[in-house]
Amino acid sequence: MAKVLILYYSSYGHIERMGQAECQGARSAGAEVHIKRVPELVPHKVALSANYKLEQVAPVAQIDDLVDYDAVIFGTPTRFGNMAAQMKNFIDQAGGLWTKDRLVGKIGSVFTATASQHGGQEATILSFHIVLLHLGFIVVGLPYSFKGHLGIKDVQGVTPYGASTIVGADGARMPSPLELEAAHYQGRHVAAVAEGCNRLRWPDPGLRAAGGVAAAAE
Question: What are the structural domains, with CATH classification, of the chain?
Answer without folding.
Answer: 3-217 (3.40.50.360)
